[in-house]
Amino acid sequence: xxxxxxxxxEGEMTVDLCVVGSGAGGAMVAMVAAEAGLRVVVLEAGExxxxxxxxxxxxxxxxxxxxxxxxxxxxxxxVHIHQGKGVGGSTLHNLNLCKRIDSGLLAAWRRDRGxxxxxxxxxxxxxxxxxxxLSVTEPAAELRNTSNKLLQTACxxxxxxxxxxxxxxxxxxxxGFCALGCAFDAKNNAAKVALPRAIHAGAQILTRCQxxxxxxxxxxxxxxxxxxxDAQTGRAFGRxxxxxxxxCLSASATGTAALLLRSRVPDPGGETGQSxxxxxxxxxxxxxxxxxxxxxxxxxxxxCTELLDVSGQSxxxxxxxxxxxxxxxxxxxxxxxxxxxxxxxxxxMGRYSHLSVLTAMLHDQTRGQVRPDGETGLRIDYAPNxxxxxxLLKGLRACAELHFAAGARRVCIPTETPIVLESPNxxxxxxxxxxxxxxxxxxxxxxxxxxxxxxxxxxxAVDSQGRHHHMRGLWVADGSLFPSSxxxxxxxxxxxxxxxxxxxxVASR
Length: 509
Description:
This protein is an alpha/beta fold and about 500 residues long. Helix content is about 25%, strand content about 20%. The protein has eleven helices and 23 strands. The protein is globular.
């Protein structure tokens, strides 16, 4: 059953397991635990949204699907960080990309962090199970939209490495509104696949219910204290107490870390909240003579990996950390990036149908921080270190090269004072760019790594089964667990970790 906590703002429940967060990780834990016979309740700060609720309008869906209405930023406002909420979490709005973590990186994690419960063969088995559950397939080549075809063409002309991406979608009609939720129920996401199974097995979901603290006695969890969220104002009110001998935090890399810190959960190694990675991204827009109509079709089906080597083991390749894919903004989002004011800005927007956008996401080494802010908020501090700054500037150059190779008439770089390149000969202008705060509008959609798993309890807070080293009955199952950035879309791996942690949790009873 699904209940709206804003209509039941006071109360107390006793269950076997309380899961905080209903995204990829939390949904899998809830499914596994409920099907094993545990009494499970899932707390979700967002609301229940069905395909009928997906209106495909930015001003309506952004406040519903994203934290802070899509306006979440780092504390200095230099990085926009998009994170989802609602029953299904970020799987409601993501673009359905499914890609495994590079095996070289997984091996490096095992070498550096122990991870006795996650050898490569376990990862492979988890991936195969999740790929089957979510019906992960590679969209047919004829379904690639013009933006993706342009990237493929550019890579082939430059001799750069590219590949097709796999997705967890079935019955897609190519509406292009994935980032605003799917009105056609074509996403095989947490809300469609895992949570219905959990509910069928007896799990309950409390929506508009935000966890405030994990209750404990210093050694063992006792449950979760939460607040109801007013549907109109978004303000927390009331008190909901969940008594449970087991708690699993799946509230995202920012939410989970903030909860642990606010709850004063012991962490002798001090890693919690101190190693945030986000895949910061830069963008460049190419203007083409022929219409691109980038809003049509499946948003991201082609990737460029020429400048990506996450494991640092590719022979003969320069060490670069950039993952390039097509990007797209609906009209309001695009308008915030286009240069100029008044008539100049209007002329750019008048060419909206002729624009193709590429984004270069960075496999970042910078360690950001997450801290709680008041009873329900959190603070994110993130400023790219010098090496990451250089890589991001390389990303701008690479996107410009790709646009021109695809036949762009000109390329717009949305720097503080926008740069417009009229020909490939002008790309060299980008080499003179010097990093400074505010130069670029960075965007991130993949926060991770704030509670990195490791089997050594002296430095890691959580082991390779997701079990907290220093608090009995406490588990973590989301992107917080990654020991580093992964250089690609995280959802498949978060689903896999949710399955892994769920099974370990059930076996621990």
